[in-house]
Amino acid sequence: MKYDTKELEAKMQKTIAAYENNLADIRASQANASVLNRVTFEYYGSPTPIKDMAGITLSDARTLVITPYDASTLKAIEKAILVSDVGITPQNDGKVIRLTFPQLTEERRRELVKQVQKMGEDAKVALRNERRTANDFVKKQKKDNLMTEDEVTAAEKAIQDVTDKFVKMVDTITAAKEKEVMAI
């Protein structure tokens, strides 16, 4: 019985996607609407994402403009941004909310790079956990006499090769994000 790595690769791909999604929340001096992805406000008693209730556009490289579809939600959206961890004070002109992203200091950039590196390490840990789960499955197959020793060795090598490929992906993504944060 040959071990199929497709399921392992699918799980690892999800880990990479989650990592990239988390990285999108780290801002690098340029306005990015993804910082609002996790911000919700109360709308008729239920938490509602801002992106579902407002148009979010870039007016320039460092300014997001939030235009609510329902003008009565303007104050609630502004309050939600203030209490969130976005770290930018919204400016409300009565019709739209503007978020102006400040230029990052060198110290803040270094903090963000450390945060990116930690997130990269967390992603690698998640990949290694997937590897351990796959290796445990292979060992159980061997114990149940469903795989020979040679098949186990080949499967473990295939699992390690897949893990190495995805760890390299994390390193590449991390390096690109670090470069983006340190640029400008």
Structural features, described:
This protein has 5 helices and 6 strands, in the order αββαββαββαα. It has 184 residues and is α+β, with helices and mostly antiparallel strands. A hairpin with a 2-residue loop joins strand 1 and strand 2. The model has no long low-confidence stretch (mean pLDDT 88).
Please give a quick description of this structure.
The protein is an alpha+beta fold.
Question: Rg from C-alpha positions?
Answer: 22 Å
Element string (H = helix, E = strand): HEEHEEHEEHH
Averaged pLDDT: 88
Outline type = elongated
Largest sheet: 4 strands, antiparallel
Number of helices: 5
Strand order of the largest sheet: 3-4-6-5
Fraction of residues in H or I helices: 55-70%
Distance between the termini: 54 Å
- Label the structural class: alpha+beta
Q: Name the poorly predicted regions.
A: none
Hey, roughly how much beta strand do the residues contain?
Answer: 5-15%
Total number of β-strand segments? 6
Protein traits:
elongated, 5 helices, 6 strands, alpha+beta, 184 residues
List the helices and strands and how they pair.
Blueprint: H1 6-24, E1 40-43, E2 46-49, H2 50-53, E3 54-60, E4 63-68, H3 74-83, E5 91-92, E6 97-100, H4 106-143, H5 149-182
Antiparallel strand pairs: 1-2, 3-4, 4-6, 5-6
Helix pairs in contact: 1-4, 1-5, 4-5
